[in-house]
Amino acid sequence: MNPRVLNFLGLGLAGVVGIAFMILTPRLAELDTVLDLTIYMIMAILALSLALIWGYGGILCFGQSAFFGLGAYTYAIAMFNIGDSTVPLLLAIALPAGFAALLGYFMFYGRISDVYLGVITLTVTLILFNSVNSTAGPEFHIGVARLGGFNGIPGIPPLNFPGSKAAVIDLEGMFYLSTAALLATYFGLRMLLASRFGRIMVGIRENERRAELLGYDPRAYKLATFTIGGALAGFAGCLFANWGNFVSPTIFGLAQSAQIIIWVIVGGRGTLIGPIVGCIGVQWLSAALGANQPSGSDWWARVLANVPLILGIILVAFVLLVPKGLVPTLGEFGLWLVRSRVRRAATGLEPKQAEKG
Amino acid sequence: MRLDRRRFLQGTAAIAATGTFGSSAWAEDPINVASIHDLSGGLDIYGKPMVDALTLAVEEANAAGGLLGRQIKLINYDTQSNMQLYTQFAQQAALKDKVAVVHGGITSASREVIRPVLDRFKTLYFYNTQYEGGVCDRNQFDTGVTPAQTVEKLVPYAMKKWGKKVYVVAADYNYGQITSQWVKKYVTENGGEVSSIDFFPLDVTNFGPTISKIQAAKPDFVWSALVGGAHISFYRQWAAAGMRKSIPMASTTFAVGNEHIVLSPDECNGMLICYNYFQDLKNKTNEAFVAAFHKRFGADYPNVTELAMGTYQGFRLWAEAVKKAGSIDRMKVIEALETGISIDAPSGKVTIDPPTHHCVLDVHIAEVKDKKLNVLEDFAQQKPSDTAAVCNLIKNPDDNQQYVIKI
Amino acid sequence: MDLIALLAIQVLYAIASLALISVGLAIIFGMMRVINLAHGEFLMLGGYAAIVATSNGINIWIAILAVAPVVVGIIGVIVERTIIRFLYGRMIDTMLATWGLSLFLVGLTTAIFGNTTVGISAPLGSFQIGAYRTSGYTLFVIAVAAVTLGCIFAALRWTRLGLIARGTMQNADMAAALGVNPPRVYAVTFGIGAALSGLAGAVLAPVSGVFPTIGVAYVAKSFITVIGGGAAILSGTVSASALFGTINQIATFATTPVFGEVALLAAAIVLIRLLPQGITGRFFRRGL
Amino acid sequence: MAAPLLETRNLSMRFGGVQAVRNVDFTLAEGELRCLIGPNGAGKSTFFKMLTGQLQPSQGQVLFRGRDISQAYAHQIARLGIGIKTQVPSVFDGLSVRENIWLAANRIHSRDRAGNVVDEMLERLGLTGVAGRLVGQLAHGQRQWVELGIVLSTDPELILLDEPAAGMTYDEVHRTAQLVREINRNRALIVVEHDMQFIRMIAKQVTVFNQGSVLVEDAVENILRNPLVRDIYLGKQAAA
User: Fold this and answer.
1) pTM of the predicted protein model
2) How far apart are CA D46 and CA B14, in angstroms?
3) CB < 8 Å to A217, chain D
4) What is the ipTM of this complex?
5) Per-residue pLDDT at B45 exceeds 60
6) Residues in Cβ contact with A32 at an 8 Å cutoff, skipping those fewer than 6 apart
7) Is C287 among the domain residues?
């Protein structure tokens, strides 16, 4: 059994499962479950955007939420001003992509690397947070859309089928759209990574200097990767604004940025399935912990229902017990079971992460 | 129960139908009531007391035999100061728990996140926090005070006491912005002047420069519309700079987060505030309530806040309406509430104002004194005149928005 | 005139507080390459330590200057022994772990103290500068910052641990090369870093107040300051704090706190763009 | 004799106070094989770094085919046709041997062509057996071969080898020498090496670096006789 075959088997399986999930869920699950799953799908796209930039591009980005938020705000503002959702959707992808390109040019062509990238991206998203957060006054508006400061923008009109404002995408449609988008993103990225570009990108992550000495310009590849990641995050932001019909500055906040990183680490860097799993897992967990709070004053009950406390313990335990992240660990366990030729083959599929401390 | 595809496509109406059907089918199963508040994260200062009050209200009702002979089940969500969870939990409450009513939301932001969800899924919504006013939605009831009810009273009182030149510091968001506009309005109406209005994002903790600015402006008193844990440092730095003794302060946000307990007396004594409820109100209902509350949550419970009482009264009003309607069906209950239901609450008489779905209630001006709030003057039965200026749900019941009231 | 004086004090104060909240992180990051996302919570714990101590009748100065650092230092060592030490050389994992830790600490403090803890009010009263009154405590904060940095300088310059520290800053394997056993050095370093954070938290408690979630207000700022400063613990922290503190405070005074914040962050970006290794990556390389 | 392939004029590199390379004038003809020797810290590696654009010289010029490349980026120089095998093998540890070679071949060949080139290269270096292994898991000697393979796969005009024989077994050294001679049939090389046997096997012309500048340049046999070189360099070696 050679790597290619294995690869295609894996992809095929993922595809079948994904499509089955998309088609069956609304028929089997209750509406509230479907709605929850919708947001998880959307956030998974966001997780993938960082998985690409960081896991494969080796670009430590603390500010992925910047592009996510820009996407959401762009969609909201454009929607109020235009009405038909086609243009806003495209803007919500183009603008963050453009912003990522600018920022990326500024950083990579300035030869900024590793943790300094982290700080700059973090700083950028915090600037956005502070700025947008202080636009509560009526004087802050773009066209007819008021920015609303801390309160954000409520009542954002949902997507409609291209051209016909009336044909609004309903809740079920939103689920189909988000799931399809996630699947498309996943397979798109798999293709990207299999392409020349993707393999060179991974090479640069592994050893930038060597790639340079072979005649590749790392700055250009990083810039491209970063821009694609920004576009994806922006797209996710647009879907997010649709799902809840609101957006507020906390979308740019430290908590949001950190959360995205957590998803990727939990699921496993250097994989694509991992961040998806991590994202859904962590979100489901905090929602599950938040629901069914005990009322009353019983101290122990309150401690056990104390979300940050429990979540914190789980995360710490996780790092110590599953350091490589969920999917790689499971993967290795699986591969440990099969023969070594297959193991060699499989390691080719998902390049191992090289920790840069 | 599962939804088959056809019903799913019929959409929300069908879901609401199945919801009410499902719950009124057997008199035995409990009535679900959802609480959606921040019990962790930055806003839990406000959320925890609200949930405690709601818990007590539910337990009292159950002890008295429940509603319509059915027990009430409180389903309690912690939104962790995270907007996304407000949406998710509102959806769960409406669709999974099929609750009869949702009590929840703290900031206006969270309300505007919940409101459309509950409208869409036809679930009754009570918002029990004091806020900037202007929400006009037949599916929602607001039991908190709005600026016209408190600011209007406190401004002239403070000006009479201290003078006509006012410096306003406010939280930089919808509530702070609008409240400070009301302050300005009433100050000018009373022949004074607002020398400046400064806004601060909710996470600002360094007020040094501002305090210098205020000193330069030399106002007769400072009006604070600051909100949240970080802003408490303003009062600290204000006192530390020795300003508390020279320039007094009035506020309609102070003490809502128990600031008067967190701060030491010499950091906030003498400040004037105005609310619907104070724990030390002298009346039979309140004394009984406070006793019950301490019995339930311990005598050392810091303080029953304005928001906690809002929530308690919110539930009581809903329960009253359910009794009157003899059903928990959303429309029946709304109609019952719109008859102008009123209850004898710890804060005094509280009545639903049919056209605005806000409340007519007493307000009191009090002074902060050694971690206590001493009531100085009472104003009976204040109407939500600000919202009334823009909203009449009896005339146009399909209205559904938050008006920005022209000031 | 007196306004200038007042402004000067406030700028100094901004620098001092920035240096205070950053230096603990600087030591931990500079020496161990650990991004401690629970840094803000260490500050928060320092505040609580001071509050609990004072409310139990301990003199406020002792509470702030002794109790808080010791308590948080011990907590730091425990954390290092139980979590961090398993993760050396894995910066990313320590990020996840310390993020989890920060959540845990927030939850724990809320469970123990609730969220309406009675704070401590600033001692030392206030004093007059011309037409203005300002808090005497401001000067105290400035003094503490100066003394702290002085002590760190002395420690780095003249103690064995300082020597090791400087070595490790130059190259990570140095500690081992110097024939000390790294685990102990790391534990101690982390402890000291935590202790300094505790001190900072306690010193600022009377100014900013203390509540479980106050950490987030600090962590990003101090992180940015540390990276902006670069590898050298002391000169890095000082120079970065000086730059950012001044910009922030003056911008705030001239306009609004928001703009002050944004100006600080923008400055950080420009700085890192110009000096990709942080200030000390370029200037006074041989600094401490 | 044709115009030189590579020429440096007055090339110097200073780090703070330290003068690592000092006014080096160096010329390499088309197709020449030159050995660089000199004690550690003589500036050989720094010299290589400047030739490949990893360091910008603090003064002087590097001319490749008469074109000044002293200010060019590393990747531009690589594309002009200078390849380097660094002292510590610089390879893609997280990738398989095949992927390593592919990344190099891919730069100059079309997708399908690259595949064959990779196979040939693996065969040529005897790496076919480990093609699927992660390079990070290979022995030092093998990683040396992988890096050689990477360099050769970009088919450079000029190949710089920084201590190719380091850490190799005796017969690996032989194979390397053989390979170098083979490469030299149609490519120019500069080889930095300490191993004198190795140099004897390959070298004609040798340049001796000392303290950052060229001490002497001569045919290998003269160099070996040169007392100066003995003192500063071979003396130690002989003693060792």
Assistant:
1) 0.86
2) 77
3) 73, 75
4) 0.84
5) yes
6) B91, B92, B94, B95, B96
7) no
